């Protein structure tokens, strides 16, 4: 143990480390790893998106504050445990929620508030571009946001000099380089797998489509340069070092790898970049990534085609809503416990409540839930209303209640995955799951296995999350990534000897989920009615406060 401690201290001093920072939807996390890919220290910052002027957003102050806070907490942990102040790092990587829209002018000013993946405001643009390209353009993608702004005649457009994602913005801030990893780029604009760059034909089609609008730019001029995993995409500048480390101890010149999206880091963190492998990432949103052997036979609005960080084609099923409603209900149960004079630890609360789902009826007793805090593209809802429904005949108990909310968390995802497995016969050798839900053993894994009707594994490293996956990508670059494929690097170095706990689907659970999902589909008209008729009731609140 003492020798290992000395080894880590030496690695920190020499900069034989890699740092990954990921901007998730509820937490910004920084993870520092050594050359054995083990975590040395981590730091985090909790944050939440806000609905402002009809758009889900995070403001720039929170973005910079969170970046600095996460790094500072990681740095302090190193100082506390090893007595060393970090002055250099071997390599750095930035990742964040994919998609969205950040538009800047030639002075670097953000022209409109950051529009996140959660916005379902680009339906008209996404539909028109999908028809134009004959390639699915989801509402979340940057190009859909840009074109919708054109359809809306937004005033900022003539001033646009650069558009990027959140990860691309932070990378630009720290390095001065307008770069993006190919996986994150594939959520901005379609990628041509043969050239491993933006699809040039579609770029020309877009420029022709908007030619009459007379903007003083072409699309290619606005997009960041695409990089592959293993390539260097810049160095930490003096300004970048001062932004990242408020204590001003960190020195510039550190190599920085291509910024990536959370989908890419999830694939890396679960060793799911080979063809026929897949992973499911569970959080505020939920998405499944299946690395394809061949192209799909047709365009599906429910299926996004993106890439791995090294450019392989991936079918992505992304649902905007997953754990938010479940977390809200558990918050209510916490309030009840506290009102009864009971102080319950968060982990204990989650463990007890989630395990109740294992005692439920296979189909959740006829109950129904929609955890739609926002719109859901897979099921065609432009807005969301969290909703719980039961009939007088439903078997309403705590076990069924909890199972219903777990089933509902994967309802939209199930509809998309059925297209891949039942219509396209996509072969999947393995699915690995990661996210906070799997901190409670068995339950989440059992539910996902039932929903996907395929074996699901949770690896010991899955809890490390996307920031760790980003640190691995930074380490891959430092280890001369282009001399070894990313797949081989992960298999032979990072994950060698790492075991996963595999769970096969239970037949009763599978049948129960199939019954539930039919109920879920039929009940979508109820959710739509809630959207149409149940507003925020602001007028009523104003009356009450008068």
From TrEMBL:
Q: Which GO terms describe its molecular function?
A: kinase activity
Q: Which residues form the Carbohydrate kinase FGGY N-terminal domain?
A: 19-263
What Pfam families does this protein's entry cite? FGGY_C, FGGY_N
Q: Which InterPro entries match?
A: ATPase_NBD, FGGY_C, FGGY_Carb_Kinase, FGGY_N
Q: Which residues form the Carbohydrate kinase FGGY C-terminal domain?
A: 279-477
Keywords (alphabetical) are:
Kinase, Transferase
Tell me which family the UniProt entry assigns to this protein: Belongs to the FGGY kinase family.
Protein's name according to its UniProt entry: FGGY-family carbohydrate kinase
